[in-house]
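Q: I'm writing up a methods section and want to include an example of the input and output format. Could you take the sequence below and give the corresponding predicted structure tokens, formatted cleanly so I can copy it straight into the document?
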Amino acid sequence: MKRILSITFGLFLISSLAFCKNDSFREPDVVWVPTPQEVVNKMLEMAQVKKGDVLYDLGCGDGRIVVTAAKQYGVKAFGFDIDPERIRDSRENVRNNNVEELATITQADIFTLDLSKANVITLYLLPQLNVKLIPQLQKCRPGTRIVSHDFDMHGVRPKQIFEMGGHTIYLWETPLQMEK
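A: Here is the clean output for your methods example:
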């Protein structure tokens, strides 16, 4: 009996360490600051979101972009964040807005995600984090629209830049146009 308990405890300890080491549960790269709703609306408008699109919000915060895309455009929208608190907030927002059939929130490290199923990607990350995403974004299918609130992607020429009330919105489309 003692041997079984020792083995069980050992397996529990190993699995716990493996869980803690998982990059999906590391500390967030940024402090969450919500995107104002009018900026969310403009981002989705600039991305020309339409029925049939699949939207990925990388660093989804409270889920407002995911909820707005699902509710106003009827698209499948997926929010990803590494912070468990943001995941809770996002899932609550999805529930409160009755968009569970269209909106999914997942705790994940955005730098390890396969972005190939998305054709709209939204960002509110620091410039160096946007740059860190370039290799993943370059793998997206042609015509994928990428929209960022306030921060550019150094080395990539935006298709459009829009200024509104102290905020800047950047739009890129794949294949990305690298600056020379």
